[in-house]
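Why does residue order matter? Because the sequence determines the fold. Keep that principle in mind as you read this record.
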Amino acid sequence: MILRKTTKPIHVGNVPVGGGSPISVQSMTKTDTRDAAATIRQIKALAREGCEIIRVAVPDMEAAKALSKIKKSSPIPVIADIHFDWRLAQESIKQGVDGLRINPGNIGSEWKLKELVSALKERPIPVRVGVNAGSLEKEILKRYGHPGARALVESALKEIALLEKLGYEEIKVSLKASNVPTTIEAYRLFSKRSGYPLHVGISEAGPPGTGTVKSAVGLGILLSEGIGDTIRVSLTANPVEEVKVAYQILQSLGIRQSGPEIISCPTCGRTSIGIEALARKVEKRLGKIKKPVKVAVMGCVVNGPGEAREADFGITGAKGKGMIFKKGKVLRTVKEKDLLDELMKEIEAWKP
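Structure:
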């Protein structure tokens, strides 16, 4: 069992973050925010996949003014992602967003932050202090020489101190780099020094293949140590894929069950049925199943029966035939060609 660090509780819209609340899954739209209709369509697609908080880029005032329409149609809380111009943050607050993300490296002078806090005090919403290795403050980068973990932590603590001095503490924090060890070290260091809730992720992780691996390693290590209150997987791909991978990471650690989990053998010289093709077909058919179910697809008598018994459902077989398991018990033996259909009949009829 993973023991999570207890952090300060906040709310992003109706989603609790920190304070022992379930780890929430976020993503970011990849549409032009000024195109409200396209952005709303993407948010709804993400919500159907299980996304619980969405962030949208606000590059200019036209995008900021589109947020009201987006917010009204969004089924999940909306966070405005702000860079460079504090006035965009002020306008986003007026438009009704549920949270802000600001970057200490480019938000500007203290007086600008003061103006922003004045607007926040009129309509309190959480602010994420989002530190990125690629956009650290010049003086911090000069002092450390490179965007290492200690530089990221100093940037976050400096911005937090300014917000606290101005009387604002509805804060969550992220410290992201594309380098996995740097990101892990930064979150570990910060977690020891602060009780603010943490949004964890690996920035610019890459295309689906490499990006999934980097995110799984980085987030998996942090989450296994109890660090992290809300997560985003950053992939160069459709954002729906980010949500899927995020849930797979949480599910693999036993933190949240959100849908099917497949256990399948890698195959070897003992395998006498087409497990690779069968596993792909099972995965495709399970894509329509939303209930949490663990399915084992095994190919020989060494580990097959044991793994199948530990799953909710399982199939294991030899050439020409196979067994279907449910909760550790053999239901029946069927022909190899009928394994998939018979397995799916059992899963679809099952009420967990």
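DSSP finds 13 helices and 15 strands in the chain.
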